[in-house]
DNA sequence: CAGGATTTCCTGGACGTCCGGGAAATCCTG
DNA sequence: CAGGATTTCCCGGACGTCCAGGAAATCCTG
């Protein structure tokens, strides 16, 4: 039970006084150093529980030089892609006694700069940069201080800088071949913002996979989106202006695909009867769409796990001399937004 | 420009030495105390910039007794309701020089307990509890320490405990009257988990508003959901078993409504032709649905703002003696998931 | 130029914790 | 029971910063 004691000096000294031992003994007790007399330890513990004493992390951090905080930089928490990353990252962090300092730069360099400053001031032990290819200059500050970093896709090979390389090709190839198997030939691609390394890579993979199976890509069927739903709608509107419609659209991410679906709904285009749609990311929302979205999965949970362990092994000095590399696969998950290509003459009816 | 200097002791002492002043002067300089000679100040600043020095927050916290951290407890980050709260809360916090310690108890008391412990260890200056009516026992620990708290809906009137009271009635009344105006009479309600204070209140408001305009509520049309999409699907399946279908469904939150829409899609029930659906929360996803979901808005941004400022005025000792109260309105936003009630004769057929 | 009033700076301690070195207590051995 | 080897504990200092109080330098006034 917690006592009524409320006086300010609820510190290790107070505990020591009440347990009639020195502060050092209290310290060793709560840190479970074995060389402390069990009887004393019990006395200490009982006082600790009675007073509801919790050690002061900042004091600990100060003397140990370890803040036990990791920074986590994402581009936008409200982007449905990120919450699960945050969730999983936080879970694991807590399990390992770490706290996380979360920041969402809303693609704003100034916010990025501020957040880097915050992280340095709090003396984070490492930072996971989940912005997918925005190689930010401000991060130089962190590198100079030898703060371990982990990037996705883009990141220099350097000491204390790890990288998670994503195998976009695998999932995209599956998607393209899936569409091809369904007799699709005019396959459109809506890209992300091309300054994003990951978005550029996805496009290249698409082109590569099409070529691989001998399908030609009409350049007019490649349009640029911005990874938002609105961008997806706009991009798809452009596609609608084409003399010959594509029969399938592959999107650089799920939000784009959702925009496409929305636009289709407005236009009375039925998915998958008239058009097949494939997304990328497999955000949770994808399975909630009507129809549920076929998409290429890139496990957010796994990504978070990799990022955390990359940082953890850096701080535990198990680091590779020149930055470790981790790999994450992507793969197609089939749902209901893809179907047989409509024949050019007569549109086949959806069979139940 | 940052120097190549990388030695560990990058502290206030190092700056003092290089600027040939005492540490106190450096401290006062970076804290912008006016009583420092401008010439010295410039010398200090130039050294600070040159070395890229950032003061150590934990040392500051230790001596000042202020961690400049607020805790933020949400039920689930992956629940689309919360990311925007987190986003806005974080924004304002940073503007005020605060950091946030985020925790999502996944409705797990043990996780809640751990997170409270983490917060106490980091000596948070206040905690916003955004779990909507889970009055948690573990929070006693925080109250005992006089840590300012802010709750939504539920929370004792006590010193250092503020409350945000949500006016559910306003929005729900608008929704009910909107449906009534569209000739709906058999209106169903899918509740949330009833141990949640906010969910129970929403249900009561619904009943009240129906009675208010002389509509009777068939008890069979009140079914319990759990605020998830799956729960919404199950609940709606129950409604489908009724001899007479409702013509409209009001849901305790948007995810539930999305579940209903999904089930309708499977059953070939067209929204809004055969059934009108209204959600609650106005999460961003609501406008992405097909058709876009009519829902009752409870501004997440405003909620976050209120919560932050409640804590801020507590730490600034502008606190009301017995806990302040804040109020947040709700109101209907019309989209496309509601329409005229279908005539009573023709029941919607399953279209295959 | 003396004397006091200000301004401006520095010294020394404190915040809460942990660590190294050494002192005291305990045990074992002969 | 003496002597040494362990175990178990305490004292003093340190982490990086801020603050109180006092010393030094500067200014003003008569």
Folded structure, characterized:
The structure is a homodimer of 352-residue chains. Chain A has 3 domains: 12-55, lambda repressor-like DNA-binding domains (434 Repressor (Amino-terminal Domain)); 65-167 and 300-329, Rossmann fold (3-Layer(aba) Sandwich), CATH 3.40.50.2300; 168-298, Rossmann fold. The longest helix of chain A has 16 residues, at 197-212. The first copy, chain A, has a 6-stranded parallel sheet, with helices on both faces. In chain A, strands 7-6-8-9-10-12 form a 6-stranded mixed sheet, with helices on both faces. With 352 residues, the first copy, chain A, is of the alpha/beta class. Mean pLDDT of chain A is 90; it is low at 345-352. In chain A, helix 5 runs parallel beside helix 12 (300-315) and helix 8 crosses helix 9. In chain A, strand 6, helix 9 (197-212) and strand 7 (222-224) form a beta-alpha-beta unit. Helix content of chain A is 40%, strand content 16%. Chain A has helices at residues 12-19, 23-30, 38-51, 57-64, 82-95, 109-121, 140-144, 168-181, 197-212, 229-240, 254-267, 300-315, and strands at 69-74, 99-104, 126-130, 149-152, 161-167, 187-191, 222-224, 248-251, 276-281, 294-297, 325-329, 331-333. Chains A and B meet through helix 4, helix 5, strand 2, helix 6 and helix 7 of A and helix 4, helix 5, strand 2, helix 6 and helix 7 of B. Chain A binds a DNA duplex (30 and 30 nucleotides) through helix 2 and helix 4.
């Amino acid at each position: 039970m917690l006592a009524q004691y409320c006086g300010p000096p609820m510190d290790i000294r107070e505990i020591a006084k009440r347990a009639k031992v020195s502060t050092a003994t209290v310290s060793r007790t709560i840190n479970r150093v074995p060389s402390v007399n069990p009887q004393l330890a019990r006395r200490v513990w009982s006082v600790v529980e009675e007073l509801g004493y919790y050690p002061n992390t900042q004091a600990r951090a100060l003397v140990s030089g370890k803040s036990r905080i990791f920074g986590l930089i994402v581009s936008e928490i409200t982007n449905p892609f990120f919450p699960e990353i945050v969730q999983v990252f936080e879970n694991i962090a807590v399990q390992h006694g770490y706290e996380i300092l979360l920041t969402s730069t809303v693609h704003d360099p100034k916010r990025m700069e501020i957040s880097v400053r915050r992280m340095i001031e709090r003396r984070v032990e490492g930072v996971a940069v989940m912005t997918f290819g925005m190689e930010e200059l401000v991060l130089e500050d962190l590198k100079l201080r030898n703060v371990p970093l982990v990037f996705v896709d883009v990141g220099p090979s350097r000491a204390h800088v790890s990288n998670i390389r994503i195998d976009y090709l695998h999932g995209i190839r599956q998607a393209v071949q899936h569409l091809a198997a369904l007799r699709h030939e005019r396959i459109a691609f809506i890209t992300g913002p091309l300054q994003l390394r990951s978005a550029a890579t996805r496009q290249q993979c698409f082109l590569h996979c099409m070529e691989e199976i001998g399908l030609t890509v009409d350049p007019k069927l490649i349009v640029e989106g911005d990874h938002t739903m609105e961008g997806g709608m706009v991009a798809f509107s452009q596609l609608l202006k084409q003399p010959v419609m594509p029969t399938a659209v592959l999107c650089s991410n799920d939000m784009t695909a959702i925009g496409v679906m929305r636009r289709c709904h407005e236009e009375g285009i039925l998915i998958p009867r008239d058009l097949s749609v494939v997304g990328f990311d497999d955000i949770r929302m994808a399975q909630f769409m009507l129809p549920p979205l076929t998409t290429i999965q890139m496990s957010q949970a796994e990504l978070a796990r990799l990022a955390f362990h990359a940082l953890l092994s850096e701080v535990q000095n198990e680091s590779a001399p020149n930055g470790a590399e981790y790999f994450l696969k992507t793969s197609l998950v089939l749902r209901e937004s893809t179907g047989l290509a409509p024949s050019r003459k007569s549109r086949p009816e959806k069979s139940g």
